[in-house]
């Protein structure tokens, strides 16, 4: 299938931009908008599609090579990759953390297998070292999609801002791919709100790309990665009730919580126009 045809027929692109109107923002004299990448598609929403898009193009050039990547048992990244492989008839392989697991361990893995992804389960020790059991030639996508290829996919997001000119862009940070990609093509203030304790890794990525100028915020990690906290859970529920926008507690919940807190602390100059990137997320398959 052609990428452009798939985008026009299957995806909601460009994704809409929605303003959040609450008294807190008016009192701070700032405007806050959300780039609704969560609406791109139910499964490959947000930065999942952005980061994988250019890998599809590469796979089309080398159809004999499977797309291979790493992830946990509930990896949104691998789930999206499996779906893309199914839709584009591209062979995919997932290297899963946890040798004790199998394709029937949870609905995510089962669905990925049913979409045709070849699953390989490895020990946590091998996973930490990213030791791949796959010996054949392949196209390797780093965990979470971080790579120069993944970053280049963010260009399409930035191109959709041609008629919108915010003073700041804020995004959640896992591997840093989205923030680094936005900064590469936008060249204005970007704030990345980290969701796990990997600032050293993020800064290493900056050095690799010879990039600088992104503000990395570590104030809202709140403990161990993916560990739920009552504060963020309550915030996500309140946010959805207030704006009718679903967010999840691992990435977008922490990002929006941090953004609200920064505005309350007057971290943005008066008159700022802030664009928050809703990087998506998926529901547990039925």
Automatic annotation (TrEMBL):
Its cofactor is pyridoxal 5'-phosphate. Keywords: Pyridoxal phosphate. It comes from the Bacteria. The keyword Magnesium does not apply. Belongs to the ACC deaminase/D-cysteine desulfhydrase family. The keyword Nucleotidyltransferase does not apply. This is Pyridoxal-phosphate dependent enzyme. PANTHER family: 1-AMINOCYCLOPROPANE-1-CARBOXYLATE DEAMINASE-RELATED. Residues 14-280 form the Tryptophan synthase beta chain-like PALP domain. Pfam families: PALP.
């Amino acid at each position: 299938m052609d990428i452009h045809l798939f985008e026009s027929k299957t995806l909601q692109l460009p994704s809409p931009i929605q303003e959040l109107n609450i008294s807190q923002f008016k009192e701070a004299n700032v405007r806050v908008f959300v780039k609704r990448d969560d609406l791109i598609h139910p499964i490959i929403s947000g930065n999942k599609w952005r980061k994988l898009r250019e890998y599809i193009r590469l796979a089309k050039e080398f159809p004999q090579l499977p797309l291979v990547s790493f992830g946990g048992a509930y990896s949104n990244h691998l789930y999206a990759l499996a779906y893309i492989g199914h839709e584009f008839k591209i062979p995919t392989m997932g290297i899963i953390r946890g040798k004790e697991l199998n394709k029937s361990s949870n609905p995510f893995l089962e669905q990925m297998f049913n979409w045709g992804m070849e699953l390989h389960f490895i020990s946590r020790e091998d996973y930490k070292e990213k030791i791949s059991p796959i010996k054949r030639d392949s196209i390797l996508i780093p965990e979470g999609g971080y790579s120069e290829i993944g970053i280049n996919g963010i260009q399409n997001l930035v191109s959709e801002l041609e008629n919108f000119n915010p003073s700041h862009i804020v995004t959640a940070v896992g591997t840093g791919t989205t923030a680094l990609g936005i900064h590469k093509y936008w060249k204005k203030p970007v704030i990345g709100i980290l969701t796990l304790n990997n600032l050293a890794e993020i800064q290493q990525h900056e050095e690799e790309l010879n990039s600088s100028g992104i503000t990395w915020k570590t104030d809202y990690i709140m403990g161990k990665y993916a560990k739920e906290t009552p504060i963020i859970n309550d915030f996500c529920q309140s946010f959805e009730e207030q704006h009718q926008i679903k967010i999840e507690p691992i990435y977008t919940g922490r990002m929006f919580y941090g953004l609200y807190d920064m505005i309350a602390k007057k971290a943005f100059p008066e008159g700022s126009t802030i664009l928050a990137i809703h990087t998506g997320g998926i529901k547990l398959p039925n």
